[in-house]
Design brief:
With about 375 residues, this protein is an alpha+beta fold. Helix content is about 25%, strand content about 30%. The chain has helices at about 55-60, 105, 110-115, 120-130, 145-160, 175-195, 205-210, 230-235, 240-245, 335-340, and strands at about 15-25, 25-35, 40-45, 70-75, 75, 90, 165-170, 195-200, 215-220, 220-225, 250-255, 260-265, 265-270, 280-285, 300-310, 315-325, 330-335, 350-355, 360-365. A hairpin with a 2-residue loop joins β9 (about 215-220) and β10. The chain is elongated.
Length: about 375
């Protein structure tokens, strides 16, 4: 599925990818991919291993030149240029620092190779180490730094030459959870301060949702959906996106008529545009969107259920609910601790829930 998107405002595109394909022998890693990225955007390529996200990033960098298609950066065709002639800085998962150089020399390496004066290099390196929160680490060597500190050095080195584009290839995946959370906020803060167009590859949906202006969800070499984190989460365009991003209930139903799906012996009001009558469909709803409070007999999409299991997850409980009327799949719902206490919910209790129509997504059954 080719997906070309429009971007914010009327800004001219900074990066244009048109009909990109990449073959490794007979295997197609990218299949006719088109994408537009705008100045100052932070865009995440998100997807499982083997979906093509890293191949797309490497094509932008010129590290794996595409088989067909065109790439423009700032109005300049870079499709066949070597990496040295493209305007980008890159940060890898493995840091890729020179172990025999101290932090100052690592950060200033690209400036030295460009013949910049030593005094100017010193000033630029100091500025960057201050920016990434390592003002006193210039004399240290990589082996003397933690993983998070090494990744900050790698980020400073990528920024040293003031590139127009920053590429991040799963930069946080080798770090422990606490460091990842802290560093992703720091990277985003630096990116916003500099207004630097940034593309990051990740398989971590939480990273993408918290860091990106827009997310590009990829699968099997194609783009499934492009949108803001809220759009990707709330309005998944395909079953794959619905399943990959966040937790989702998938409920099997039958299209009973325009705007009506039969599930668990009941007719539910749902959006059914473009679906064939009397066809099998899959209803999707997030666990947190299952409604419990302030329901009565007139509430749309009311469903009687029994609590089959409760898993305590700190600030909420994840409940497994079985419809008591007709045949229907189990439903997972997230109940706050306050709700649990107020309604005295426990395993075996029967209650009514509602599946709000505006929170339901409907897809044709595979």
């Amino acid at each position: 599925m080719t997906n070309t998107t429009t971007g914010p405002g009327s800004a001219a595109p900074y990066l244009k990818i048109e009909h990109l394909s990449k073959l490794f022998g007979s295997f197609a890693a990218l299949k006719d991919v088109s994408l537009t990225i705008y100045p100052g955007e932070f865009v995440c390529f998100l997807g499982p291993s083997g979906c093509g996200k890293t191949t797309l990033l490497r094509a932008i960098a010129g590290l794996d030149v595409q088989t067909t298609g065109k790439i423009e950066q700032g109005g300049r065709d870079i499709s066949r240029l070597p990496p040295s002639e493209r305007d980008f800085g890159i940060v890898f998962q493995s840091y890729a620092l020179f172990p025999n150089l101290n932090v100052t020399d690592n950060v200033g390496y690209g400036l030295t190779s460009r013949g910049m004066k030593r005094a100017d290099i010193t000033a630029r390196v100091k500025e960057l180490l201050d920016l990434v929160g390592l003002p006193d680490s210039g004399a240290k060597y990589p082996a003397q730094l933690s993983g998070g500190q090494q990744q900050r050095v790698a980020l400073a080195r990528a920024l040293a030459t003031s590139p127009g584009l920053l590429l991040l290839d799963e930069p946080l995946s080798a770090l422990d959870a606490r460091v990842r959370v802290r560093l992703r906020h720091e990277i985003r803060s630096v990116q916003r301060r500099l207004g630097l167009t940034t593309v990051m590859v990740t398989h971590d949906q939480e990273e993408a949702l918290t860091m990106a202006d827009r997310i590009v969800v990829m699968n099997h070499g194609v783009i499934e959906q492009v949108g803001s984190p809220s759009e990707i989460y709330r309005l998944p365009a395909t079953p794959f996106v619905a399943d990959f991003v966040g937790t989702m209930n998938f409920l099997d139903g039958l299209l009973a008529g325009p705007g009506r799906v039969s599930f668990a012996g009941l007719d539910l009001t749902v959006p059914t545009d473009g679906l064939a009558a009397n066809s099998n469909v899959r209803l999707c709803i997030r666990p947190e969107d299952v409604a419990v409070r302030n329901l009565d007999a007139s509430t749309p999409n009311l469903l009687p259920v029994e609590i089959r299991a409760l898993d305590f997850l700190g600030s909420f409980c994840r409940a497994t609910l079985k419809p008591t009327a007709g045949k229907g799949s189990e439903i997972v719902a997230d109940f706050s601790i306050n709700l649990m206490r107020d309604l005295n919910l426990e395993v075996g209790k029967r209650l009514s829930i509602a599946l709000p129509a505006d929170r339901l997504r409907v897809f044709a059954a595979a």
